[in-house]
Amino acid sequence: MTPYICVTCGTQFAETQEPPNRCPICEDARQYVNPAGQAWTSASDLARRHRNSFRQYEAGVLGIGTVPDFAIGQRALLIRHPHGNILWDCIALLDSATIEIVKALGGLRAIAISHPHYYTTMIDWSRAFGNVPVYLHAEDRQWVMRPDSSLRFWDGDRLALADDLVLVRLGGHFAGGTVLHAASASAGGALFSGDIIQVAQDRRWVSFMRSYPNFIPLGSATIRKIISRLSDAQFERVYGAWWDAVVTGGGRGCVERSAARYIAALDAQ
After folding, report:
1. Which domains, and CATH codes, for the chain?
2. Cβ count near 118 (within 10 Å)
3. DSSP string of 116-135?
4. Scanning 51, 112, 118, 209, which has the fewest C-beta atoms within 10 Å of its C-beta?
5. d(Cα 61, Cα 136) in Å, to the nearest integer?
6. What does the pLDDT read at residue 184?
7. Are 217 and 234 in contact (CB under 8 A)?
């Protein structure tokens, strides 16, 4: 029995004798089925062809990503904290070197994930670090393809992982789309956004979409709700989902200015 991994989106499924017939996450309008057809791999096969790379962004924030790119190509972030480290978002590859490095840095206290496209092998990560809890918003429960007792589904718009680490549900891209606000991060705080808030190629701006690969925008009412739910959060940096997708300063103003531009563009149609 193998917990197969979708090659296109990186989602790991419950153990089966044969690969699943379909990937519901890829069939959804926010993702896509590879034009070459559905394909599957396993954790062991993935580790033979790929490795993980690491990047220190600032004190206490370490990026972990797979090379060459696999599936969507996002990188995870290890957030080091006095009360225990948090893995923000997840990647499919978990090799022995990654386990050793993360354990040497204090292991994990919890995993928190922004939305279903980054669930990947979250159960393998949880088990490798002592069955740590994996926090997912309950609105996205239907997209879990590998159920497990480590999953912690939370409701509402806020969940504190520590006094200075708060999960905030923004919705938008997914109903349970979540960001992590780190108020005590160095130099004015940080927002870890995955692509619930997407850092643009011009790093002075961010954007908001229902589907990135299929170019489906969110409506202006949804953008206003996202900004409202961030009303109390102060932050200088915004960490998106990819290696260089980082707003390095003026993050709060960047998000507000970008939301205003986005809404104005929609209203002008």
Report:
1. 5-267 (3.60.15.10)
2. 24
3. GGG-TTHHHHHHHTTS--EE
4. 51
5. 21
6. 78
7. no
